[in-house]
Amino acid sequence: MGAPSRATAIAEIERYFDDGTYRDELARRVAIRSTAQEPDLRDQLDAYLVDEIGPALDAIGYDWSVHPNPSPGGGPFLVARRHEDDAAPTVLTYGHGDVVRGLEGRWSDDRDPWTLTIEGERWYGRGTADNKGQHTINLAALAAVLRVRGRLGFNSTILLETSEEIGSPGLEAFVAANRELLAADVLIGSDGPRLRPESPTMFMGTRGALNFVLSLDLRDGGHHSGNWGGLIANPGIRLANALASLVGPSGEILVPELRPEAIPDSVRDVLAGLEVDGGSDGPEVDPDWGQPGLSPAERVFAWNAFEVLAFETGNPAKVVNAIPPRATAWCQLRFTVDRDPETFLPAIRRHLDGHGFDDVAVEQQPGTTTMAATRLLPDHPWAVWARSSLETTIDGPLTVLPNLGGSLPNDVFADVLGLPTIWVPHSYASCSQHAPDEHVLAPIMREGLRMMTGVFWDLGDDSVPTPPAG
Question: Which CATH class is domain 6-206+374-459?
């Protein structure tokens, strides 16, 4: 038998997928009803970490422990470490073991959300895409490198949380209190979708999210539209016009303080020519929606978006001939790192006041927190290194995104721990995560296993030097 090699490790992970071992592991993990959204299933969060993930880590020589969440209502954290050499780089890997509600009875063809169901290339089950299938790939890739080389060649720390689907309460506080335990040179994790199902993708951050409410309360009750129409202000009309002053008819943001001033050249370069495609089940991109002059990829990965999520005035369920007393719009800004989110609501307030809408109230949506934006520029040494490793494995070009269009708690790693962050997603945009019929595609999972095995092999290969610490 020849010396251990990268090719041997990738062949090993291919066998792991092809012989059904990955399928069996994922099926076992999907069966654990570890939803953070159901307090009655709180014990399943512990079971996922202690009974399922812990033994898998024991088998590959990790020391692990489970820690309570400092936030009331938050689920526990698992931290696992394998330390091999003080002089070697340390890689932090993140995932989450919690899932959204199963939504039993709403899946097509009577599928059970807690049973892995395979139909052609689609593997259905709650958590297959978000995030059990993805972190199972990364754990399996680490194990494959250890089986072939006998060591990683780097130090590895794994953090699994169990509250991501309820906003990751306690994650920032836990990480801040355990900086030494979680100290690393780089974060390499997997979550979110590829740009297109057939395009292996790497992203280095996320857009942020701010949910806020615009409301107008003019009087105590409704008044007959025949008697009072044309005499008293209609809050629905006023609020609609207030919104129209903020965002144009094609979705373009009209307030300069709510959008980036410019797109960095390195970001524009990697986005050039990229096509946004969610697959056969995804919606078609509207070519003329959003900021004029930008490509679809630039609009979703390098620009801000103003969305109206819900609008209510009167009683839509039982309409009556009365001018309603109030109107409310629930809105959201998705934003890049180019603007400070603390400035958004004050800017909206100034704009509305200046346009005669001083009666419209502006507040952050109660019960929500602002998710910060993060971005690692594509020319950062760790981004360049990871891209080279991944392209070696796929033997072709990689889709590189400066940040995901959606949001993840990446700021905890980028800002609190100060790490460069690399994300390699193993899902796609039409996977139905958070909905009935969540699924993953077998070709993406197999390719993801190969890609991550190559990355973890290269991290411990002296002939593939990693960027210097710091």
Answer: alpha beta
